[in-house]
Amino acid sequence: MQLSEARFIRQTNWPRDLSGEKILEVGSGAGRFTEIALKTGAQVFSVDASQAVDANWNNNGHYPNLSLCQASLYELPFPKGYFDKVFCFGVLQHTPDVALAFATIAKFVRPGGELAVDVYNKNYWRNYHTPIYLLRPITKRISHNRLYRWVAWWVPRLLPVSTWLRNHIPFVGRQVSALVPISNYDALLPTESSEIIEQYSILDTFDTLSPKYIWPQRPDTMHQWFVTAGYENIDFDNDTVFAMRGRRKLT
Could you tell me if 67 and 171 lie in one domain? Predict the structure, then answer.
């Protein structure tokens, strides 16, 4: 939870207390960020297109300020301009048309309200030309249940290999380590817990191999989408996954 909370705070840049405000979460999954939004005191409307809403309800249904529904991003059951704040994390790059998906959710922010999204950074092109991505034409066609079982089996076995290569080969250890077809979180998390590192590596490997679509975007492209949608005060964090925020103009 600490890692998710830190990411939510960094990517939204919103105050901790949002009592009296209405927040829309687009693409909740099992509720990783839902609980953090709920703890701000805001009324949170959380939506996901998949049956992950059931897991979210099991995790967060006890919060009285949660409204949860299963719906497509393109058919959200809310009035346009209704929400004080909208966020969408880990979703846009997996839609068939990222520009359309962004333009759709941007309409649900009220004038003066704020929008925060994140997306894979296309400027880090090397990340998308590694062996793990070469597997995607096959793995994205495998049922998610079966693929997850495979990933949960092979990641714990390959993770030590990837880590050893990175730490013991001079100068090019990181590049050689990338030849192992997994996501390695050993040097990315502020923890020494091998269990947490392994779990994050499993989940991220699955998230890389399973989606039908992965469309990274460039920050300048996303910035233009914000402008076109009528947003100002736009800023972003430039990383392999970058977050961008903006405020919808009053007029």
Answer: no
Closest CA to 33 of 51, 50, 48: 48
In the chain, the number of structural domains is 2
Residue 1, pLDDT > 70, answer no
Kindly report, residue by residue over 108-120, the tens digit of the pLDDT: 999 999 999 999 9
Those residues whose C-beta lies under 8 Å from the C-beta of residue 190, and which sit 6 or more positions away, are: 3
- Tell which residue, 11, 76, 58, has the closest CA to residue 37: 11
**Distance between CA atoms of 249 and 81, rounded to whole angstroms?**
11
Please tell me the distance from the alpha carbon of residue 218 to that of residue 109, in angstroms, as a whole number: 23
Phi-psi region of 209 (alpha: psi -120 to 50; beta: other; left: phi over 0): alpha
Phi, psi of 159 (to 5 degrees): -60, -45
Q: Give the residue among 118, 106, 86 at the shortest CA–CA distance from 243.
A: 118
Residue type, 3: L
Q: What is the distance between the alpha carbons of residues 14 and 8, in angstroms, rounded to a whole number? A: 9
Mean predicted lDDT score pLDDT of the chain:
94
Helix pair 98-106, 219-228: axis angle to 10 deg? 40
Supply the pTM of this predicted model: 0.91
141: number of Cβ within 10 Å: 9
Backbone angles phi, psi at 110, to 5 degrees: -70, 155
The length of the chain in residues reads 251
54 and 12 in a common domain: yes
Q: Domain limits at 165?
A: 125-209
124 and 240 Cβ atoms separated by less than 8 Å: yes
Structure tokens of 12? 């939204």
